[in-house]
Specification:
Layout (H helix, E strand, L loop, with lengths): L1 H21 L3 H6 L11 H12 L5 E3 L5 E7 L3 E7 L2 E10 L2 E13 L2 E9 L5 E2 L13 E6 L5 E7 L17 E9 L4 E5 L1
Antiparallel strand pairs: 1-2, 2-3, 3-4, 4-5, 5-6, 6-7, 8-9, 9-10, 10-11
C-alpha cells in the first residue's frame, strides 16, 4: 500500500512539474541559456538582469568582458538584449499548437555601418533545432538585418545581393541593393510562412 501511495505521489508531482516546464516564461528560459550562446553573459549576469527588472532598476549588468550589457525589453515571450556596442540578441518564444514552444534567437553583429545577422532555433531546454524546419530563408545568405515584431510575430530578413556587372553600358559594377523578405509565424503549421 505504501508503494502504491509513493508512486501516486511521485506521478502527481512529475505531472505538475511537466506543466510548470511547459508554462515557463522566456525569463526562465533566458536564465537557463548556455553561456556559449552568449559568452559575454554569465549565469550571474542573466540573473542580475532579471532581478533588476523585478526591482524596477535599470536592466544592465557588467558582463564578463567588464563592459555593460543592457536588456532593453524583457517580457514573458520576448527579449531584446544589447550585449555590447557591436552586438545584440533578440529572443522570441514562438508557440506551436499541441506542441511545446520553441525559442528563436536572432544574433546581430555591427561593423561600422554594416550589420551581419543570423537566426537560430532551440527547444525550451536549449537543444538546437534545424532552422530550415521553421523558415525558408532567402537564396542570398548575406543577411544584413533580421528582426521580429514581438506583437505580430512578423519576421523580416533583409539581404544584400553581391556586386554584379552592369548591363547599361557602364564599366562600373552595380552597388549591392537590399532585398526584404517578410514571414508570418503560423502556430498551426509551426513555421514561418513567406509573405508574397
Amino acid at each position: 500500500m505504501k508503494t502504491i501511495l509513493y508512486i501516486s505521489v511521485l506521478a502527481i508531482s512529475l505531472w505538475g512539474h511537466g506543466d510548470f516546464l511547459h508554462a515557463q516564461s522566456l525569463k526562465d528560459i533566458f536564465f537557463k541559456m548556455p553561456q556559449e550562446l552568449c559568452p559575454a553573459l554569465s549565469e550571474y549576469n542573466r540573473l542580475e538582469l532579471i532581478d533588476n527588472q523585478k526591482n524596477n532598476k535599470p536592466m544592465q549588468t557588467r558582463n564578463v568582458f567588464k563592459t555593460f550589457s543592457k536588456m532593453e525589453t524583457l517580457t514573458d515571450d520576448y527579449a531584446h538584449l544589447v550585449v555590447s556596442k557591436n552586438s545584440e540578441k533578440t529572443i522570441k518564444l514562438l508557440n506551436r499548437n499541441e506542441e511545446s514552444p520553441i525559442v528563436m534567437v536572432i544574433s546581430t553583429v555591427f561593423a561600422d555601418s554594416i550589420t551581419d545577422a543570423s537566426v537560430s532555433f532551440y527547444t525550451t531546454e536549449w537543444q538546437p533545432l534545424d532552422a530550415n524546419c521553421f523558415v525558408n530563408t532567402p537564396t542570398s545568405k548575406d543577411f544584413r538585418r533580421i528582426s521580429i515584431n514581438p506583437d505580430t510575430n512578423e519576421l523580416t530578413i533583409t539581404t544584400h545581393y553581391p556586386l554584379s556587372l552592369s548591363f547599361n553600358n557602364s564599366d562600373q559594377p552595380q552597388k549591392p541593393h537590399p532585398l526584404t523578405n517578410t514571414y508570418r509565424w503560423s502556430a498551426d503549421e509551426a513555421r514561418f510562412i513567406h509573405q508574397e
